[in-house]
Amino acid sequence: MSTTPPNAALSHVLAAVEEVFGREVSSADSFFSLGGDSIEAVEITTALEQRLGKLLDATLVLRTPNFGELAAVLGGREPHADAAVGSGDSQGDRL
């Protein structure tokens, strides 16, 4: 699995979320605290796929709702056990 540098991953996450929600967010913000739903999760996932050039699991945003932690996962670091990615994933190279 290729990784994205941590600062770049955070920039991509924040830009994608801001694009979808139409407001400024920080790494401390959470998808659910902004009132996110499944449609917005898919929209963020799609925006991240375009920015990163790789396929992502559509549930990643729902499983890792804190934007700083999401960036850590995308940057190749696992912030906590609940954010595990790729283990047993039947989608091949999706994160």
Structural features, described:
The protein has a single domain, classed as ACP-like (Non-ribosomal Peptide Synthetase Peptidyl Carrier Protein, Chain A, Orthogonal Bundle). It has helices at 6-21, 38-52, 60-63, 67-74. The protein is built from four helices and no strands. The relative contact order is 0.21. The chain is an all-alpha fold. Residues 81-92 have low confidence and may be disordered.
User: Which sheet architecture does the biggest sheet show?
Assistant: none
DSSP strand content: under 5%
Shape: globular
Low-pLDDT stretches? 81-92
What is the CA–CA distance across the termini?
8 Å
Name the CATH homologous superfamily: ACP-like
Domain Carrier: 4-78
Keywords: Phosphopantetheine, Phosphoprotein
InterPro entries: ACP-like_sf, PKS_PP-bd, PP-bd_ACP, Ppantetheine_attach_site
Protein name: Acyl carrier protein
Tell me the layout of helices and strands.
Blueprint: H1 6-21, H2 38-52, H3 60-63, H4 67-74
Helix pairs in contact: 1-2, 1-4
